[in-house]
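**User:** Here is a favour to ask of a fellow structure person. Please take any protein you like and set down a full record of it. No explanation is needed for now; the record alone will do.

**Assistant:**
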Amino acid sequence: MIFSGLLIRFKALPVLLFGLLVLFIYLIHYTTFSHSIGYSGSLSKSQSNSSSTSGGLPQGNTKVVMVTASSGTKAFLGIPQLKEMVYENRKSYALRHGYDFLWANISSYPIGDARVVWSKIPILQEAWMRYPDADWLWWMDMDMIIMNSSLSLWDHVLSPEGMRRNIILDTPLNKVGGGDSGYRTPPTYQYEDVNFMISAGGWGMNVGNFLMRRSEWTDWLLNLWVDPLYIQQNWVMPENDAWTHMWRHHSIVRNHSVCLVQRALNAYPAYNQLGKHWQPGDHTIHFAGCGGDERCPSEWLKYWELREGYDVPESVQKALSDGTAEIENVQQGVGLPTSH
């Protein structure tokens, strides 16, 4: 009995040590961030450094950068001309609403031998440097279509009214695979504290489509997100599971992020069982998991025809016809603005 008890304690030792290591790393990140801004629970209005805000609230002239990344074959997902379609869709939307658009070559942003999905984090970190006047970054995975091109991000989710309409409060969150995770969204939020917006649905939160505001909290979050301890975990959806872990276990993350109704940012096609399906008028549609589904090409083309009609600017048409479209043209460290 004594030997058995000792053996159980010995087997539990690695788990205990891992837990202590996670706590130690978090305390280092938290202490550094807290000291840098004098954190006392939430960012004060005077600590927000968004260049086009008033009292921390984003205004109608908010500067947004749309960020996409990919690499490799143009027959991605088995759809010929997919990247040209994505470029037309997103660049036309950006020009219509006065946003910037960045398409990075994700293979040029490696993090050691980590899976390529982690590279979205250094891409976002560098995007802030490339666009020093940007207030918000809008990350979109490759496998998405903007369906409602007339709806601006300000009217949709960035304005005070847009937030009130879409943020879900004190609501159970699902886990990967479906079913209650045991966690709930915060019961309240403050406009000036919102630095991260993400949809929640049938499989929990999905980092294929989210918005983040320029702030010191955001810089801290991106640093924490790619902590080597997270990258080394054998998670099913690595960077997504890392985000979920941070949100669940660190109140400083929850205090500055909000969950939106799923279809606000992350509606799915009808065949997809990850959550609620796209309805006419929804802003975007996300073909998550499309790479491994044989239905994907035909479904993509079906919904492409259902998107709201829009005029493709002549500059976009010319770039596509003469091969100068900015598709995967951004390389890590190349062309960064020089500081004066």
About this structure: The longest strand covers residues 204-213. Residues 1-18, 30-59 have pLDDT under 50 and may be disordered. The chain is about 40% helix and 15% strand. Residues 78 and 297 are 6 Å apart (CA to CA).
